[in-house]
Amino acid sequence: MDTTQRTDQQRSADRRRRELLEAADRVVLRDGPQASMNAIAAEAGITKPILYRHFGDKGGLYAALAKRHTDALLASLRAALDAPAERRERVESTLDTYLAAIEARPQVYRFLMHPAEGGQGGDQGFDVGKHSAPLLRRMGEELAQVIEERVDLGPGSQQLARVWGHGIVGMMHAAGDWWLGERPCSRAELVRSLADLLWGRLAAAGDRMGGPGF
Amino acid sequence: MDTTQRTDQQRSADRRRRELLEAADRVVLRDGPQASMNAIAAEAGITKPILYRHFGDKGGLYAALAKRHTDALLASLRAALDAPAERRERVESTLDTYLAAIEARPQVYRFLMHPAEGGQGGDQGFDVGKHSAPLLRRMGEELAQVIEERVDLGPGSQQLARVWGHGIVGMMHAAGDWWLGERPCSRAELVRSLADLLWGRLAAAGDRMGGPGF
DNA sequence: GTACGGTGTTACTAGCGGTAACAAGAGTCT
DNA sequence: AGACTCTTGTTACCGCTAGTAACACCGTAC
């Protein structure tokens, strides 16, 4: 009686929540990250207070929205990361997966990473500053875990793996961001270049002028 | 007559501008990145429209503010980057310079990188999203130029250098951000770990379980 | 019937970025 | 002297935002 009622209501609420998130998604993808709560509510065919009842505040809505995309992206990355292949191949495949994702849906990516970039109007966009870090952090921790599991780094391996995880994710992120804006080369070339960097080609290359003393 | 007059006025305007920027700096460092134009104007002892006459809009003020810090940081980095030392030493020194800077003035750093992170109030903070990229971009391009000048990368070196420049800067940034938040190790250890990563230790390390086939 | 929990609305607050309109001082030209 | 202009400063406003309070409706349980 009470239980079935409750579950029914809960289900209904969950479905509604999903609908609202999808509406928010549409608006954000259309209007850019500075989409207002009013606009999202209108797109969902309702008014603001309902949105606030479901998500608390704008940050809550954003967090829910970001979690969806982040989870999806992380799942893809995990697949590439855990593939039964050689390390170099796995690294390249992971890089490529990430870059393909941001290439395929740049607006989603920009929304997750850069709060209010597009649009000429006011700048009260989503306060993604508080949340973009968590995305990068999650990716960094995930990668760190995989590194620690699969690579033999000797003593201090856990700490080293975490540094590397966050570092590599940052490299991927920044390079991808720059590449997405300028498109100076193909995705494959970018992947190769980054993998080369991780493979120590910087250390292996010779100096261009004079000796190391100058 | 006209010229001296003009230069006088220009000088006065420049001085005023600098005063305003210093006031803005104080407010941003005190109130966090969500400092309002009103608050900055009040700190400077004036009212909003003057601020707008000097900087156009909030983005302009932020850009001016960011340029000061960015220029200072870039100058330090250039010094470390151009030092007459071996490559590994130069890399470590540059990493350390950057990390020391963000360690010494985390509030400035957070302001430059993360728009509205602190504070519990409204989220109409500085719209740094539009401008944090430029900082990373500038660092990336700078590093790319140094790499291209000093490292012999064979054909396609320019493009490779740019990819690496942005990638390394991103690595430094993300790792530094994470490190600043968690402080899991000393600065020196972090520097060493990152340099090791760039030196190909990831590629050189052995697998932990099974062969590369699993 | 009536009380109730959920869904929805309208109407509002407080604060933001940004601007128009106006006032006052200082130097300049006639 | 008086009018003209330029800079510096103000007050008062606009339109927008996030977020909230208060009220209305509707199906169900007793």
Automatic annotation (TrEMBL), chains A, B:
Keyword Amino-acid biosynthesis: no
Any one GO MF annotation of this record: DNA-binding transcription factor activity
Keyword DNA-binding tagged: yes
UniProt domain HTH tetR-type: residue ranges: 14-73
Residue ranges of the TM segments: none
InterPro entries found in the cross-reference section: DNA-bd_HTH_TetR-type_CS, Homeodomain-like_sf, HTH-type_TetR-like_transc_reg, HTH_TetR, Tet_transcr_reg_TetR-rel_C_sf, TetR_C_32
Keywords tagged on the record: DNA-binding
Domain of life of the native organism: Bacteria
Segments of the chain annotated as binding DNA: 36-55
The name this protein goes by in its record: TetR family transcriptional regulator
